[in-house]
Structure formats: C-alpha cells, structure tokens
Specification:
48 helices; 5-stranded parallel sheet; single chain; mainly alpha
Length: 937
C-alpha cells in the first residue's frame, strides 16, 4: 500500500492527464532503494492506460548493462518483428568494421516507431532503473527527450543515487530541465506516513510502541514492510490498535535480507560501514579513522557512497545511520567474540586520543568484561563520565566494583554513589543507604548522607529524608558548606511535610550563612530552600524573588549547574501559575540549552515536560505532543514521567475525539502509576482524560467519580496541578447528573483553594466558574470569561464561552446564547477539539439553541488558512530564511518534527521550495517583516 506523498501523486496525475490531452513532457523519479520509485511510475502507467494512452514499460538491470540498446528494446519492443529488425541491425553493427551506419539505422528505426505511435495517439514510455541502462539506451532516451515537447509523448525514467554514472547524471538533468521537464524526489516517509503504511498493512492503527519501533526503518517503505513482516509474531491487534507484545529491545534481530540489499555498495564502502556500526547509531569520521588506524581522508572517501545512498545522514558534528535496523543488521553480521575484541580496541583508541569519555564508555559496555586498563581508566575518568553519561557510568562502575580490589573499591563506590544520584532511579536510595552505612570517615558519611537525602527527596520519601538529615546534622560535619546544604535539605523536608512556617524560620540563617560563605552552590541551595518554604506558605511572588536570586548564584559556577536547572524549572512553574508566558519561555529556553549542554537527562526530562505543559495551555497541542514524546524518549526512570506523558497525550486525543488512541494511552499506565507523591501531583491530566472519555461515552456519573480525588484537602491533593480546573469540572458534571451535593462540595473546595492561593489568577478564575455554574449566573460566568480572555488559554476560553451560552439559554436569552456558542465553537475548532464542539452543540441543542447553518469557520484544505498554528509559526520562520535546525531551536521542536511541518507547509501552499514559501509570505495581506515568532500562539 502506498501512503503519503499526496502532492507528488497529484502532480503525477496532472502530468499524465496533460499527456492524454496531447501535451508532451519528461519526468525523472529519484529515490533511494525501496523508496517506491517503481510503484510511483506504475501509477502513471495505470492512469495513462485508463485515459486511453498507449503505454510501454521496461526496466534496466546490472546484468544487461553492456548489451547495446537492451534496456530501450525491452521497453519499446519486448518481442515481435520490430525487435527482430533492431536486433539484426545491432548484430550487423557488431560485425562491421565501421558500425556507425548500422547503429544510426537502429536508433532511427526505434525513433520512427515512437513517432508512428505518437501519430496515432498519446504515448507514455517508462524506463525503470535508468542507473543500470546501457549507454546506447541512454543516448536513445536523450534523443526522445528532445522530441517530447513537440509530440504527444510522455517520457519517464527512474533512478537511484548509486551507482553514480556521469552520463546518467547528465541525462537526468536534461530530462528534468525546461518547461516540459519534471523531477520528483521521493523523500523518506515521516512519522504519520509510516503509521499510515502500518495501518494499511495490519488493518489497525499502530500503537505508540510500534510507532517508535517503525523509526528503525528510517522512513523507507520497503524496509518498513520487511520489518513488519519480520516482527509479525510480536504484533497483536487488540482494542482496535496494533501493538508490540514485547519491548523494542526484545524484537528479533533484523533479517539478513537487509544486508544483502546493500550489494550496490563497493566492498570498501561496505566494510567501512560495518566498522561504523560498531561505534553506535552516530559517529564522527575522525572516530572511525581512529578505530581503523587509517587517515581520515581515506575513511571519508569510502563514506561517500553510503552518504549518497541515504544510508548515513548529516547530524551536525556527527554522521548518523538513517535506518537503525540496517545498522543492527551490519552489527549482527560480526561474530560476538570479534565484536567484543573490536569494541575493546575501539575504547583504547578513543581514550588514547582524548575523545569524549562517554564514547569510550559505550565501547567498554559493549566489549564485555573489563580488563585492568579499563578499570584504571574508569577510576581516573569517573567524574567526567558521570557528568556526560551517568547511566553508562553507573553500569561500568558496578562492573568495576565487583572486579576491583579493596584499594580501588572505595573510590569506585564513591563515584557509583554520584552516578546513582544523577540517575534518579528507584534503586539509587538503596545503593546509597548501603554505602552510607559502610562509611566510617565523618566527611565521607556526611557527603553520602547528603546524596542519600537527595535520592529520598527525588522518590518523594520526605519523612525518611528528614530523619536522615537530622541524624547527619547530629554528627560532626567537617565541611561548613556541606553542613549548610544539609540544613537546606531540612528546610525542604519540613516544608513538604506540612511545616512551612517552621521551615521558613530555619531558612533565614541558612540564606545568611550562604552569603557569608560566598559559595555559588551553597547560595543557590539556600535560596531554593527559602523559595520552597515561601511557596508552601502561598507567597508566590516572594518565592519567585528567591528563585531568581538562587539562579543568579548558580550562574557563578558550573558546579551549581544542576541546581540552576532545578531553579529554572521552578521559575517556569511559578510564572506559569501567574499566567506570565514570557518569563516561562525564557526560563525554559535557558534550562533546555543548559540541560543539553551538560547532558543532564533527568533535568532535560523535566524541562521537556514543562515545555509540553506550556504549549498545551497556550493551545499548541502538536508542540505539546512533540514535547512529551521527547521526554518519553529520554533514559530516565522517574515514576511521574509516564503519568505526564500518557496523561497529556490521552487528554489531547480525547479533546480531538480520537477515543481509541486516548484509551490506548491510558492503558499504558502501570497499575501503581500514582504511587509516588510526584506522580500524584501530575495526575490531573490522567483524571481529566478519564473523565472526558466517560462523559463522551454517555456516563457523566462515572466522569464525576474519576475526578472525586480532587475534593480531598490532603497535602498531595492540594498541590495537584490542574486541581482548581478539576473542581470546576466536577461542578459542571455533577449538575448534569443532578448531584447538587457533590457540586456544592466542589464549589466549597475550590473556594478554600482560591483563598489559600489568593495571589494566583487560576484558582480565582476556577472559583468564578464553579460559582457561576452552580447558580447558572450569567453575570459570574461573564466575569470568568473576562478573566479567561486575560489568561490567554484557548481551551479555558472555549469553556468560558460555552458556560456563558448555557447560562444565557437557561435565562431565555437565546440570541445571546447562540452568539456565545458560536464563539466557543470557534475557539474549539482552532484547537481541533472536536469533542468539545460536539459537547457544546449537544448542551445548547437541549436548551433550544443551534448554530443554524454550520457557518463556523473550518480550516481550508489549501493556502495559508489551511496551516495549523504550529505550521504557521514554522512557515513564518522559513520565510525569514531560517534553517530547520534554527527553527527547531527557536520553537523547542525536534529537527524531524520541523521537517514534517515543512513538508506539510509545501503541500498546503502548493509550492516546491522554501523560497516559494517566502515569496507567498511576502504577498500575504497584512504581512510585514518582524521578529521571529516564539513558541506561544
């Protein structure tokens, strides 16, 4: 089944339809092996035959490349008298001393035959795999190409990048040039197109695990078909979704056919590519040259073929395998003992050249048991490796500790403790507890106590964290800086455990002592502790001032980078609660750049989640989904991450009325998803998504039950994100069920929340909505609408208009209700929130209000109006001349997401180049040059 590339297919149909009307033309279809070149031209053949054109098809192959005119003959005259006549002339030319006359006669005979066919009607000729064609066939195709414009002749050819032949390059350039020439490049499928291919093959849309696994094909259709067939035993269709029954790591090794398909590469290029596979998914030519002990220029020369073939792609400073499955196939070709030996040699070469320790660690991990050199290297490089790749560091250190003698073990265990803390894994606290118990030196005990407290706080075990902190402070702490940091931990634990006033009192001397010490890390942690205590006291503005001071301290030294990342996340969350998007964006931009630069995967996951939340609130749901996808792809094991990822995805898909997809996301949550306090804090999206699906299924009482935990006033519930909004939804849904007691309880709970968080606009807006819904009071709901318009959240604004429409209808003002409904639907349609449109229409229809003719604005199919908000922002940056990497950085998107947006923009604007996008942008009414748009709408 062919998918995607709709613009190309429509252009092909137009080209064929023009030929059927007598317009000649030339077409070259280019693409890598497996891209679908033959399928593309076969569509042209079928379309042309259906329109009454004469069609001829032939394909060149490497076995007949030396036979003159063989490819052309197979296309024009696969058999019959005409073929016999041409073959006779070719035999005469081969036997003649001067074959020129016979050659010319053979060519003339073929050309005259084509002209004769054209005299009787339109003709389509297709020569597939032009790169294998013999020189005489190429010469004939050039001659026919020069006559195509004056005949009803459509001349098509396909080719792939390799083998690279100058005469083929020149011919394709000629055929694609001029008014009648067209060149179509079949680019790799993007994510949605790959999912569509799998849907067609499997009969059900692929689930998230299968979609991720499909990336192994790198967008190559044939390779994706091969992999899907190879994985058939590990794919099941349940609840309307095709999903893997094993993890991606447990899938079988790629089939041997993948390697056999590389026969077009030279032996030298193939061998170099196989060595590159040992270095991982991405590598630099310099690394490969070091490992092979060869000059870099030789390696680069042999990488030219894989680059031209699209097997490798430029990834900035590195080259990357575009098709991970192909790399795995090349890697598996080497016997395991040979692989281990080569990995160990590669580690020694990379370390000897002073390369990134993370690259050396990757080779050691793949190389099996560590030898003496590896243990010594690890002891010397542990801290640099932990900063760059804590996961690899922890795994190597665990191996090394088991092999090391007593003299080396203490240092290795200390490094292992640092790695465990950086990883934020559930087992980190147990490991640190063991190390702390074994330590005898007071300084070592205090340092390990601090790390253990940090790990316990990450887990959310504040009771144990406070106990360990108090015990540590009761013992001698040789370092004043370390003692201050432990005192800051005590402030955090007390505030989290419900004693923020006491915590604030203890934070005052901590801040003063940090100023006296002048240490960047101490200053950052002291202000973080004070900010945390103030936040729990409901003093948000004061808290943000201390957050800013902590960031200023952290910027003074790289040792405070991790604390700086934490404070930047707190700054973004704090300003987000005040609905201030500009400082949120600035904080998250700085955090993301720093997390990437320092390779802090745990903090990067937090940043990506906050970015996703930011985009969701501002109505850019595609960017929000891209953000949680990036977070989901990071190697961290925080228990809250699946709650955020699947909750936000399910909520967006629920609003878009993609019910099966939403249910599939929720089904991926583990049974104990809300076990950790941090996970419960992020539970709002999951509960809202479950309630939405229940209401959509006609079960509003079940929807209320899904949200009931928000009514509790415990410390976890009080700090649950989206709690005020959940309470307002309880009021709406409970009233739908006639459950006024529950609705009244939700109004009261929202009132308490708004009083406790009086500084923040969100709870006050939710309280107005609660009270307005409960009383069906248009005046209160109009006030809520005014606040919603200031907040700038499209979904909240849509709900405010919908609520006001219902209240006005209850009071008999049907015209005003209809006007408010229209505004609500416009807000929902801008988001693509199809369920919200349906719900609003249904609620108002029951009150006698309809929008009448469906005149609400719908997105156009083509043109600037067809662009989604995310596509529009990308288009405007394209028009400014920004590259895809620059756009990705500006909008917090992946390069692949930007490329997908650009492809959709070109299709919707019906243009072929970025320059054409810029030209259209300049002609747009009201367009004027200005600064690049930010992530917000």
């Amino acid at each position: 089944m062919r998918v995607g590339r709709e613009q190309r297919r429509e252009e092909l149909r137009d080209w064929v339809r023009g030929g059927a009307r007598g317009l000649g033309g030339r077409l070259v279809v280019e693409g890598e092996p497996g891209a679908g070149r033959t399928a593309h031209v076969r569509e042209a053949l079928a379309e042309a035959a259906a329109l009454g054109c004469r069609v001829r098809y032939g394909a060149a192959d490497p076995f007949t490349a030396e036979l003159p005119l063989r490819a052309a003959l197979d296309c024009l005259h696969p058999d019959g008298a005409d073929r016999t006549a041409v073959v006779s002339l070719l035999r005469e030319a081969r036997e003649a001393e001067r074959p020129g006359g016979a050659w010319l006669a053979a060519m003339d005979l073929l050309v005259s035959g084509v002209e004769g066919w054209c005299a009787r009607g339109p003709l389509l000729l297709v020569l597939d795999d032009l790169h294998w064609a013999d020189p005489a066939s190429l010469a004939l195709w050039r001659r026919l190409g020069r006559t195509a414009d004056r005949l009803p002749l459509l001349l098509a050819a396909t080719r792939r990048p390799l083998p690279r032949r100058p005469e083929v390059e020149q011919l394709c350039a000629e055929l694609g040039a001029g008014p009648g020439g067209h060149t179509v490049r079949l680019e790799p499928l993007d994510g949605p197109e790959s999912a569509e291919l799998l849907h067609g093959r499997l009969g059900a849309p692929p689930g998230p695990g299968l979609r991720r696994a499909a990336d192994q094909a790198g967008g190559n259709p044939r390779l994706l078909h091969e992999l899907a067939a190879h994985w058939s035993g590990a794919i099941e269709v349940t609840a309307g979704t095709a999903e893997l029954t094993v993890s991606e790591e447990e899938l079988p090794e790629p089939p041997d056919s993948l390697r056999r398909g590389l026969g077009y590469l030279s032996r030298a290029a193939y061998t170099t590519l196989r060595h590159a596979a040992l270095l991982g998914p991405a590598f630099t030519p310099r690394e490969l040259a070091l490992v092979q002990a060869r000059p870099a220029r030789e390696v680069l020369a042999e990488l030219e073929e894989p680059l031209l073939a699209g097997l490798l792609e430029d990834a900035g400073e590195q080259l990357r395998f575009r098709q991970p499955a192909l790399r795995r196939a090349l890697y598996a070709e080497l016997p395991r003992p040979a692989r281990s030996a080569l990995h160990q040699e590669a580690a020694l070469a990379l370390a000897g050249a002073g390369r990134d320790p993370a690259r050396t660690a990757e080779q050691l991990l793949a190389g099996g048991a560590l030898d003496r050199w590896a243990v010594e290297w690890l002891a010397d490089s542990a801290q640099a490796l932990i900063a760059a790749a804590p996961g690899a560091a922890a795994e190597l250190l665990e191996r090394a500790v088991g092999q090391a003698g007593r003299a080396d073990r203490d240092a290795l265990e200390g490094s292992l403790a640092d790695a465990a803390l950086m990883l934020r894994r559930p087992e980190s606290a147990e490991l640190l507890t063991t190390l702390h118990r074994r330590a005898a030196d007071p300084g070592a005990r205090a340092a390990l106590a601090f790390k253990l407290v940090s790990a316990l706080m990450i887990e959310g075990d504040m009771g144990r964290a406070l106990a360990v902190t108090e015990d540590a402070l009761a013992e001698p702490v040789p370092s004043p800086a370390l003692r201050l940091r432990l005192e800051a931990c005590r402030v955090l634990a007390l505030a989290e455990r419900g004693s923020p006033a006491q915590a604030r009192v203890l934070a005052v001397p901590v801040v003063a002592e940090a100023a006296r010490l002048g240490d960047p890390l101490c200053g950052a942690e002291a202000h973080h502790a004070m900010a945390f205590a103030l936040f729990h006291l409901g003093r948000g503005r004061e808290s943000l001032r201390h957050v800013a001071e902590g960031i200023a301290w952290a910027r003074r030294g790289p040792e405070a980078n991790d604390m700086r990342l934490l404070l930047l996340a707190n700054q973004a969350e704090g300003h987000g609660q005040f609905d201030e998007p500009e400082p949120v964006e600035a904080a998250l931009r700085e955090a993301r750049e720093l997390a990437l630069a320092t390779r802090s995967t745990g903090r990067l996951a937090v940043t990506e989640v906050l970015l996703a939340e930011f985009h969701y609130r501002l109505g850019d749901w595609d960017a929000a989904l891209a953000g949680v996808a990036r977070a989901d792809g990071l190697p961290v094991s925080d228990g809250w991450l699946p709650v955020v990822v699947h909750g936000l995805r399910a909520l967006v898909r629920g609003h878009r009325d993609e019910r099966e997809a939403a249910r599939a996301e929720l089904a991926l949550l583990p049974p104990a998803a809300f076990a950790a306090p941090a996970a419960r804090r992020y539970s709002g999206h999951v509960r809202l998504a479950r309630a939405l699906l229940a209401e959509r299924a006609g079960r509003p009482a079940d929807a209320v039950r899904e949200l009931l935990p928000a009514l509790a006033d415990g410390p976890d519930e009080a700090r649950t994100y989206e709690r005020p909004w959940m309470l307002s939804e309880i009021v709406r849904l409970a009233l739908e069920c006639g459950d006024t007691a529950t609705a009244r309880a939700a109004v009261a709970a929202c009132g308490r929340t708004a009083a406790a968080l009086a500084e923040y606009p969100g709870p006050a807006l939710a309280l107005l909505r609660c009270e307005g819904l409960f009383a069906q009071d248009p005046r209160l709901l109009a006030q809520a609408l005014e606040r919603a318009e200031r907040v700038g959240r499209p979904l909240v604004l849509g709900h405010a208009w919908e609520d006001l429409a219902v209240a006005r209808a209850w009071h008999g003002d049907l015209a005003a209700a209809r006007s408010a409904l229209t505004r609500a639907v416009a807000a929902y349609e801008e988001l693509g929130a199809r369920w919200d449109v349906a719900r609003a229409d249904a609620r108002l229809r029951s009150l006698g209000v309809r929008r009448g003719s469906r005149s609400a604005r719908r997105r156009a199919a083509n043109g600037w109006e067809a662009l989604t908000p995310a596509e529009l922002r990308v288009a405007l940056l394209v028009a400014q001349g920004r590259s895809n990497p620059e756009i990705a950085s500006a909008l917090f998107l992946s390069a692949r997401t930007v490329q997908t947006h650009v492809s959709h923009i070109l299709a919707k604007l019906q243009v072929r180049s970025r320059a054409a996008v810029a030209a259209q942008a300049a002609r747009r009414p009201g367009s004027e040059p200005g600064p690049a748009p930010g992530p917000g709408p």
